[in-house]
Amino acid sequence: MLDVAIIGGGICGLTTAIALERRGTEPRIYEAATEYRPVGAGILLHTNAMLVFDRLGLADRIRDAGVALDGGEIRSPAGRVLKRLDLSGVERAAFGHGYVAIHRAALQRVLLDALETEVQTGMACTAVESTAPLIATLADGTTIEPDVLVGADGIDSTVREAIVPGVSRRRLESVVYRAVVSVDLSPPYRSRGFQCWGVGTYTGGAPIDTGRVYWFGTAPEPLTPESADPAAKLAAIREHFGGYPEPIPSIVAALEPGDVFRSGLADVPRLERWRRGSVVLAGDAAHALLPFGGQGAAQGIEDAIVLAHELTAHDEPAAAFDSYEGTRKPRADRVHDEARRMGWLATRQSSLGARVRNLGVRVLPRRLFDRIRRRRFAETPLPKATRAE
């Protein structure tokens, strides 16, 4: 049995570990955080992510912990519907799964409960000294020499330095505000995702459980200095987003000072390779995406099941890595580029550009729009199931 060490106990790392366990391998997992806390924002799991979780026997638990959405809509700032998503008529009809909106901490808890291996927390990887033979150092000075090291340690991956040195974040000229808000939505929005595409602003969200909503909103630049007091920050957010169609005004009106956190938007450029020696990358370490199109977590989840399959289907890690990268990298690169283009479109600061963009979305034929969605999910890589799966 291969000795597999996973660096990073986030969604991708945990899913990879579960997939390996389902195939008879007992991985070691090292997480930088000292403990798992119920913090963070929401996450929208698209159909391809749910297909993987279905294969791993976790789809029902994830639906129960979140909200299975009936549909979604994209609107203009004036409230005009640009596109509706009929998740029952397309995704569920074709694949049996739609989208599930869930708090990131709730998803993490489902994964941790499904995992037999105990995650070793407070154990960041500080360096990969060598890829062949494999030697890595952890935060407490421990040296590990597994057969395989999986770098699932996020956008600022330390493991990635051993494969493609010098890669850093590539920023988009926008910031994003995120929050989980306690608010009583009107009935139409209690099981529906919603977006609004404005001038330089892309805002929306979805219900993640009874009485709570995940909300996000971008702005070309910070609405207030970081040093501003919480009341001033909230006032600026309400002023900037309060004029958008419902349910956005109701959500921002319900915000509390501790609800909102702000961050920059960034991805990483396409990588030349995902592996070197006995080290391989997965998730954001390999292909961090801009958060447009909702595929960031889903692509890491796809990585997880494919990598676990290849590691247990081949006698040598090199052959497993070749097959994994050949299967995953072309698809992840396409999705990466799509997210970059969509981010560029969604944050247009030109009024004319925003109007042209919204018109293009509105006149896109429904049949073509649905075909694009079906093709995306039909290409979900699902290796042959094992008995345990």
TrEMBL record:
The keyword Nucleotide-binding does not apply. SUPFAM superfamilies: FAD/NAD(P)-binding domain (SSF51905). It comes from Halovivax asiaticus JCM 14624. The lineage of its organism: Archaea, Methanobacteriati, Methanobacteriota, Stenosarchaea group, Halobacteria. It comes from the Archaea. Keywords: Monooxygenase, Oxidoreductase. InterPro entries: FAD-bd, FAD-dep_Monooxygenase_BioMet, FAD/NAD-bd_sf. Gene3D superfamilies: FAD/NAD(P)-binding domain. Signal peptide: none annotated. One of its GO terms (molecular function) is FAD binding. Coiled coil: none annotated. Residues 2-338 form the FAD-binding domain. This is Zeaxanthin epoxidase. The keyword Oxidoreductase applies.
